[in-house]
Amino acid sequence: MSEIERLRAELGARDAELSRLRTELAETNSGVLALYAELETQAEALRRASDMKSSFLSNVSHELRTPIASVINLSRLLLDEELGGGKLDLEQQRQVGFIARAGETLLEMVNSLLDLARIEAGRMDVLVRPVVVADVLATLRGMFRPLVTRQAVSLIIEEPDARLTMHSDEGKLAQILRNLVGNALKFTERGEVRVSTNVDGAWVSFVVTDTGIGIPNEHLERVFREFEQVSNPLQAGAKGVGLGLPLSRGLAELLGGTLTVTSTPGSGSRFVLRLPMVLRPGETVLTGRAEVAVA
To answer: What pLDDT is recorded for position 209?
Structure first.
């Protein structure tokens, strides 16, 4: 009887412990549910804030484009005697030229802001067409050759296979490459900027290497954040507000690919744009910001 009483006592104690654990589990579950609800509320607030930011950037960019374009056009009119601008002396021409170049810089920044807002809102159209890679690189070569003003810097664009054809958005591909090459030239004082193309199965890689100042390892991801720039001796003389690389990565994701960088300070940088050979219409591309349907 004493053994039975002891077992009953142990069973009662275990039942009490089990009841306590059930109560704690219920309280924990209640806390987890409350935490999930709070997280969902915060996520919704962040989504609304992101939507408001994208809407603000889009609206402001649209409002700024017209007056900036007017400043640029009026400046060009003043500089062109045949269009009725009148004769300006050399100092006046120089000052009006400053106005025109400042307007062009502002317009480029506004267009980049508008593109970023479209990507974040998932409203950027992706139009897939056959793209002859050699033609894209030939256009790039013709665009940048006159802009290489440092005699100590060479721009080398290697010829790809003339038959290499992708199915992608040619305009966005060209925009990414323009940003990468322009950025490389901006921060390279001597040596070369080289563009090469590699094919790996169903993927095409565009590699832009330079012998410029390079980027410290701790700042490699920072260069892809909006409005952030890494301090360096060439920064003071370089135009831009830190939108080119973030926009390029966003466009790379829109095209179903990636944009990465490796670098050695003092020796140069290597940007790799890796894109699928075929981006199929009807696919949905997840950019990390929004889902975009491919047309």
So the answer is: 97
- Compute how many other C-beta atoms are within 10 angstroms of the C-beta atom of residue 112: 22
**What percent of the chain lies above the pLDDT cut of 90?**
35
Each domain of the chain, given as residue ranges in start order, spans 1-121, 129-293
Backbone angles phi, psi at 79, to 5 degrees: -80, -15
- Full DSSP string of 200-260: ETTEEEEEEEE-SS---GGGTTGGGSTT-----TTGGG----S-HHHHHHHHHHHTT-EEE
Alpha helices in 85-237 (DSSP H): 90-121, 133-144, 170-186
Compute, in degrees rounded to 10, the torsion defined by CA atoms 234, 236, 239, 240. Answer: 100
Predicted TM-score (pTM) of the model is: 0.72
Per the CB < 8 A criterion, the answer to whether 129 and 170 are in contact is: yes
Q: Provide the CATH number for the domain formed by 129-293 in this structure.
A: 3.30.565.10
pLDDT tens-digit map of 264-274: 998 999 999 99
Residue written as token pair 């056959």: 130
The CATH class of the 1-121 domain is mainly alpha
Tokens of 168: 């992608």
pLDDT at residue 236 tops 50: no
Taking only the tens place, the pLDDT of each residue in 24-66 is 888 888 888 888 888 888 878 877 776 776 677 677 777 888 8
Q: Are strands 284-286 and 268-276 parallel, antiparallel or unpaired?
A: unpaired
